[in-house]
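Here is an idea for our session: we take a single protein and study its fold together. Which protein we use is up to you, so please pick one and set it down. Once you have written the record down, we can walk along the chain together:
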Amino acid sequence: MNKTDLSRRLPIKTINADIDSFYSLGSVSGPMPNRTVAAPESIDANSAAMGAKQQRETEIAALVEVAADVARQTKVELCNAVMAIQESLREQTGHNPRQHRP
C-alpha cells in the first residue's frame, strides 16, 4: 500500500481515478476483499464522509470570502472617512495636514 502525502491535496487526477474505481465496484462479481477498510460498506462510508467534508470546506471558503469582502469594504470606508477629515481640515484652515512644515 502506498503512503499518501497528506500535507498536500491529492491531484484531481488521482481523486477522479479513485471515484471511478469506487463507482465501478458495483459491477464486481465474486468474492469481495476481506479487509475491513476495503469492504464496500467502509468505502461507502468514506465516500459519504468525503462528500460531507468537501461540502463543509466549500461552505467555510464561501464564509471566508464574504468576511474578506466585508473587511475590504470596511477598509475603504475608513480611508474615505480619513480623507473626508483631511479635506474638511484643509477647507477650515487652508492647511494640508499631510504637508510637512519647514
In short: The chain is about 65% helix and 0% strand. Residues 15 and 102 are 66 Å apart (CA to CA). The chain has a mean pLDDT of 84. The helical segments are 12-24, 40-93.
